[in-house]
Amino acid sequence: MTLTDNPDYWENRYQENNTPWDLGQAAPAFISLLHSENPPEPGRAAVLGCGRGYDVLIFAERGFDVIGFDFSASAIEDAQIIADTAGTSARFMQRDIFDLSAEFENYFDYVIEHTCFCAINPQKRFDYVNVVNSILKPEGEMIAVFFTHNRPGGPPYGIAPAQIKQYMHRSFETISLRPVINSVPKRIDEEYLGRFRPIQSSETFGEN
Question: Looking at the keywords, is S-adenosyl-L-methionine present (predicted)?
C-alpha cells in the first residue's frame, strides 16, 4: 500500500490545508465546455475525488444531478459548506471510489474526472477505469481533465496522452482527447481534456 491508498493521508492534507491541487474554482476546461455551443446534456453525474467540490458545483449550476465523492471527511465537510452557501442541489459522500461499483452500478450518465486519476497509486489505474465503466450507464460518458506532466514521483503522478488511450481503449471509445488551452498558469501545457464513451460490448479488464 502506498500513502495515497490511505484515507488518513488525504484527511491530514485537508486538515493541514496542504492542498496545492485545490484551484479554489472549477477546472477552466470544464467551464469552457459547459458554456460551449454544444455542451453535454444535463444528467446524473459523479465527480470522483471531488475535494472541496468546485467541479461539482459548476455542473450542478448547469442542471446536472451531481454527487461528489472523496476519501477525506474534511474535504466532504468543506464541500458541503461551500455548496450550501451557494444554494445548489449538489450532494457529497465520503467514499473510497474503488467501492462505488457495488453501490452505483450503471447509475450515472457522466463521470467527471479532475485530479483523482493523478492522485491514485498508478498500479490501480486499470482498476480505476473498470470502476468508471461499471458506474456509468451503457450510453454514458466520461469527461476528464488529465494532468499530463512528466515529472518523476508523485502525487500527482503524471501520464502521457498516448498512455491515457492505452488505459481507456479496452472499455471506452475515445470521443476526443485534446490539450487544454486555458489551464491555470501553473498547469499550462500539462492538461488534456478527454471525452470517452463505454464500448457497448466491453467487459472489465485487468492489465494482462
Answer: yes
